[in-house]
Amino acid sequence: MNLQTIIMSNNLREADAVVLRKKVLGMVDHFAIFVGYRGNNPIFVANYKDGVKEVSHSEMKEVLKTLQPTAIQKFYGNEFQRQKATRRALSRVGERAYNYVSNNCEHFKNWVHTGEHRSDQVNKAGNIALTVATGAAIDAIVNKKAKSGAIAVGLLLLGAFLKDVAEKK
């Protein structure tokens, strides 16, 4: 699917987000915010490991070779709010503060859409860590295993940390 087809078939408007997933064994989503056109070329903004940047038409075509659009997350708000969200996205271009846990592309997309800096993916990872911690704690108690207890404490701390940074205020 080419970029123009994605834009037209989904009626993309400024501040809408394209959800992208690796084509092979993709487990984590990547998000790119559509910010409009420069001339006839669509422009997106995304938070990458090397920072927040504008993604040109030609760069986005390259991205689509490895990432598959799986969904569109529409921006819900009036025109004033949509323009404000687009300005918010553009205001961070050049920022180099990417972090998988506390400032990833989903944090960025949610901040652009709502003003809230949060990541459901990181929150889910925290939930998984807490669930495994519970199992390890039960194993430690039932079988009197100090090693399982230590693992449980570590996972509990990790889960709590992930849940805390998933929704940074």
Keywords:
about 170 residues, five-stranded antiparallel beta sheet, single chain, about 50% helix, elongated, alpha+beta, two-stranded antiparallel ribbon
Topology pattern, helix = H, strand = E: HEEEEHEHHEHHE
Taking the alpha carbons of the first and last residues, their distance comes to 37 Å
**Class by alpha and beta content:** alpha+beta
Helical residues, percent: 40-55%
Low-confidence stretches: none
* Biggest beta sheet attributes: 5 strands, antiparallel
C-alpha Rg, in Å?
19 Å
Oligomeric grouping of the chains: single chain
Write down the overall mean pLDDT: 84
Strand order of the largest sheet: 4-3-2-1-5
Shape: elongated
Total number of strands: 7
Determine the number of helices (DSSP H or I, runs of at least 4 residues). Answer: 6
Name the beta content range.
15-25%
Summarize this, please?
By secondary structure, the protein is an alpha+beta fold. The chain contains 6 helices and 7 strands. The protein has helices spanning about 5-10, 55-65, 80-90, 105-115, 120-145, 145-165, and strands at about 15-20, 30-40, 40-50, 50-55, 65-75, 115-120, 165-169.
